[in-house]
Amino acid sequence: MAASIFAAVPRAPPVAVFKLTADFREDGDSRKVNLGVGAYRTDEGQPWVLPVVKKVEQMIANDNSLNHEYLPILGLPEFRANASRIALGDDSPAIKENRVGSVQSLGGTGALRIGAEFLRRWYNGNNNTATPVYVSAPSWENHNSVFMDAGFKDIRTYHYWDAAKRGLDLQGLLNDMEHAPEFSIFILHACAHNPTGTDPTPEQWKQIAAVMKRRNLFPFFDSAYQGFASGSLDKDAWAVRYFVSEGFELFCAQSFSKNFGLYNERVGNLTVVGKDADNVQRVLSQMEKIVRTTWSNPPSQGARIVATTLSSPQLFDEWKGNVKTMADRVLLMRSELRSRLEALGTPGTWNHITEQIGMFSFTGLNPKQVEYMVKEKHIYLMASGRINMCGLTTKNLDYVAKSIHEAVTKIQ
Which residues are CB-neighbours of 341 under 8 A, at least 6 positions away? Predict the structure, then answer.
């Protein structure tokens, strides 16, 4: 028999976080804890369907006016408009001046990809494969891959995490921006930086914006956790709104996986802020062509859930309450973990656990300590030391804290 025409295809390494989850499922130890997966869990360790989502799903099911016709290529209009509105704010000057557009996408990753494809083809001219794209060090691994697969040849990193002080390396970041080639593209985390959980303060964001404006750098925000990070939609969108107020043209990729719990519905939006309405419409016309050959038309169910919720003042308020429930549980787990580590006298400082924000915490554990946690304690976390705070519960907190204490004490 002739060899397969695919015989030369190498096996790609598994996606780390999904491999971690698979290993966790196969582990028969009763003490096992999954701190890897990037999804919300209740204090019982279970997925949570937001009550407002259940209510809206029932409304949709009972609406006989709905059908399964194709959505427009750019997506459900009421979803797109409301998604951009919560990102930019009700009083956004850009919205009032009609210089905002948007594209419904397959999750936040889809929004990043459509934005990346457009920038590679049309940013600051056309066919800009050599334009440098800067990604924070560290960052969510998809940031590098999305822009690389979109055709960009020059993917660089900018300083972000200071391991020694377990916080933001602001001077390193600003210095990288000062020395970046003019018109470079910078991927910025709008809030709840993944994986570090460390965000600039408003004053630090102002310094960042000032350098980016002077150096003509393009901000591409990734907003995956609005509302979920602090419990406040406005607080978590502060950076994006400030950049808009400073006159930037920008892209903002939004995900509704975390703040609506719609992980498998793949609900995302790419908000485009331009100089004027004409520019935005020309950009959207090109994005429509990209979408047409990528997924052609987006799915409707998740977008309808979000649009219905955001369009109704009553449902909107209920949703904000649901989001705050999730954010408050994460904040409580941060406080409880830190207090336990400090009570145990665990070597090092642990204030960064409560100073960080959002779903993830960069613990500072090194690879050998992580390996100890996984193999000896059956606590699954990323090799970088990143943990999902939602994986902590009142039932496993003591075990996790004692295990971290052992790892740090025994292994340097």
Answer: 350, 353, 401, 404, 405
